[in-house]
């Protein structure tokens, strides 16, 4: 009888689409493009001849490559891009944010990609966050 209950429990879990993704962030990124808000904050993100460069840009490009995602970047300031993130107009916000960022009430920090720096995503759990954190954990930057 125990085996039947265990199997039933596993089947129920397998049928769940966890994590829930009410905005379909990951699917929208796959079907359209991964929309990244970027804030100049050397050395994490710098602009050379109008082109964004730096370790955070490289991590995002690697994540996009691994998941066959096209990328678009939107340059801006923190408060403006946080607002866009909250409206789900951006998927990820990048700009050298630390784990204890003042924006953690408005956005969800990812797992750190080094000892202290994170990306920000819209509040809540979703498939995009799950895929991004899996990539981050496999490719953590050594300080």
Written description of the protein model:
With 143 residues, this protein is an alpha/beta fold. The protein has one domain (23-138): D-Maltodextrin-Binding Protein, domain 2 (3-Layer(aba) Sandwich). 38% of the residues lie in helices and 22% in strands. The protein has helices at residues 2-15, 25-31, 55-66, 78-86, 127-138; strands spanning 34-38, 46-48, 51-53, 71-75, 92-98, 107-109, 117-122. The strands form two sheets. It has a five-stranded mixed β-sheet with strand order 4-1-5-7-6, sandwiched between helices. A two-stranded antiparallel ribbon has the order 2-3. A hairpin with a 7-residue loop joins strand 6 (107-109) and strand 7 (117-122). Helix 2 (25-31) packs across helix 5. The protein is globular. The model is unreliable at 3-19 (pLDDT under 50). InterPro entries: Solute-binding_3/MltF_N. This is Transporter substrate-binding domain-containing protein.
Describe the structure concisely.
The chain is built from five helices and seven strands.
Write the layout of secondary structure elements.
Blueprint: H1 2-15, H2 25-31, E1 34-38, E2 46-48, E3 51-53, H3 55-66, E4 71-75, H4 78-86, E5 92-98, E6 107-109, E7 117-122, H5 127-138
Parallel strand pairs: 1-4, 1-5
Antiparallel strand pairs: 2-3, 5-7, 6-7
Helix pairs in contact: 2-5
InterPro entries: Solute-binding_3/MltF_N
Pfam family, one: SBP_bac_3
Protein name: Transporter substrate-binding domain-containing protein
């Amino acid at each position: 009888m125990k085996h039947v209950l265990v199997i039933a429990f596993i089947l129920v879990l397998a049928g769940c689409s966890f994590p829930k993704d009410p905005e379909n962030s990951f699917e929208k990124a796959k079907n359209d493009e991964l929309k990244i808000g970027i804030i100049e904050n050397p050395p994490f993100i710098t602009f050379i001849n109008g082109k964004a460069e730096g370790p955070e840009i490289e991590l995002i490009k690697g994540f996009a490559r691994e998941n066959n995602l096209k990328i678009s970047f939107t340059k801006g300031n923190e408060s403006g891009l946080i607002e866009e993130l909250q409206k789900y107009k951006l998927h990820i916000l990048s700009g050298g944010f630390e784990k204890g960022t003042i924006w953690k009430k408005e956005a969800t920090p990812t797992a750190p990609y080094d000892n202290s720096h994170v990306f920000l995503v819209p509040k809540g759990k979703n498939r995009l966050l799950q895929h991004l954190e899996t990539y981050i954990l496999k490719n953590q930057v050594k300080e």
